[in-house]
Amino acid sequence: MKQKCAKAAYEMIKDGMVIGLGGGRTIAFLIEELKNGNKKVKAVTPSEDTMNLCVKAGIEVLPLEFVKQIDIAFDGCNEIDKNLNALKTDGGIFTREKIVAVMAKDYVILADEEKYSDELTFEHAVAVEVIKSAKEYVKSKLEEMGAKVEERSTEMKMGTLLSDDGNYLMNAYFEKGQDVKALDEKLKHITGIVETSLFYNIVSKALIAGESGIRVID
User: How many CB atoms lie within 10 A of CB 47?
Assistant: First the structure.
């Protein structure tokens, strides 16, 4: 199914485009399609793994800080709903992924049908990137909102996991049935939060892969 999704995404790409690429297996399949196809593109990615795959495939990778606009961007997610709200909790590069998303004329999520639902289930946490000095303050504010908060960690080192930009990463678990717009606004108003993995009013289209084929949500 991921390969079918990648093939459908490939058909959306035009020769000469600057494309944004996230991470994950479907994106890896899309890079393979580009490698085997005849479309000349340049890529922007916040993912080191994706950058390495692009280089191996002969795709020129542009530094994000030198790009003003992206023609189309593709990424995966943990959850997406019928209103194109998405959670991108896995990994710690969601801030940079969101930068790529808002730079793109079209931001397309590629997902298997088990990740799609009428409403976000919030079975996955909302990940938040937090300025170091605001860690305890942000944690208290999230708990006031009813979230169960966990600091991200890794077996590789002691302490809270850091983003590529040197900020703390936390997971905030909310109950199902959240008003996504209201939740997004509340999170954005907490001083000290850099960004979150909740993508509200950002995704322009989704390609949902199932047994019966590809469904387009827009």
Answer: 20
